[in-house]
């Protein structure tokens, strides 16, 4: 049985179709990502699946049950970290987490372990309103995980974290998934999705545009390879004549050669002893994302 089944899901606000006929499944134990620009419908989709909103139409099955009307039997089995979190006033980080733990009958010792796991042990006696944005984000994640749920929803969990904290959290999330839990993530970070997710759905204008593994999405783009030459070659025109070379550009980091036949280009560079210091850049999930959703600014 899939952990999540979404069929024909729609959410309309007047003429606005925030979610428009979305269907997908998430397997038990899968790490599933939803990517999309601002306003794509990611958060609304998650809130419907979590049972926080009633959809205009469509059906959701969560761990074999319907989350709406609000299904109390599902609450101990899922963990939810929202995009915007609110804490109890005047409580310290430890008191916040112990309060959440007590709602699920979790002992205080286990709550303290989660403070350690998210790197907040040294902030245990600090009031939540005095935490930095990144620290508050990590506390929110600990609150979502303190009862050891089998299905976890994370909405932009690393948005306010510095690179080191992001990487540490990736390790934590990977360990949760490795232990058999299902994780559903929304993120703006393409490297995060490539690193963590088994499959990703790219969403825009309320619809799932493409859904597959990150590697399959990248392969399907059929984008050219960019090779950056740290050392200038003697004859740029000769490089441009190599089979498969589409363009040659001067850049601060060196000469950037775009080619649809990188093997032929690399062979040419080897013959001319120009391989030292080169960088080979294939397509990434970010290229797929921009190809599907466009490059224009979003409000």
**Domains counted in the coordinates: how many?**
2
- The residue ranges in which pLDDT falls below 50 over 5 or more consecutive positions are none
Tally the helices: 10
CATH class of the largest domain: Alpha Beta
According to DSSP, the number of beta strands is 13
Any idea what the shape is?
globular
Domain ABC transporter: 4-230
Keywords: Antibiotic resistance, ATP-binding, Nucleotide-binding, Transport
Subcellular location: Cell membrane
Membrane topology: Peripheral membrane protein
Provide a descriptive summary of the structure in words.
It is a single chain. The protein is an alpha/beta fold and 299 residues long. It has two domains: 4-219, Rossmann fold (3-Layer(aba) Sandwich), CATH 3.40.50; 224-282, Alpha-Beta Plaits (2-Layer Sandwich). It has ten helices and 13 strands. Strands 5-6-7-3-8-9 form a six-stranded mixed beta sheet, sandwiched between helices. Strands 11-12-10-13 form a four-stranded antiparallel beta sheet. Strand 6, helix 5 and strand 7 (182-187) form a beta-alpha-beta unit. Helix 2 crosses helix 3 (108-117) and helix 3 (108-117) packs across helix 4. The chain is globular, with a radius of gyration of 23 Å. The model has no long low-confidence stretch (mean pLDDT 90).
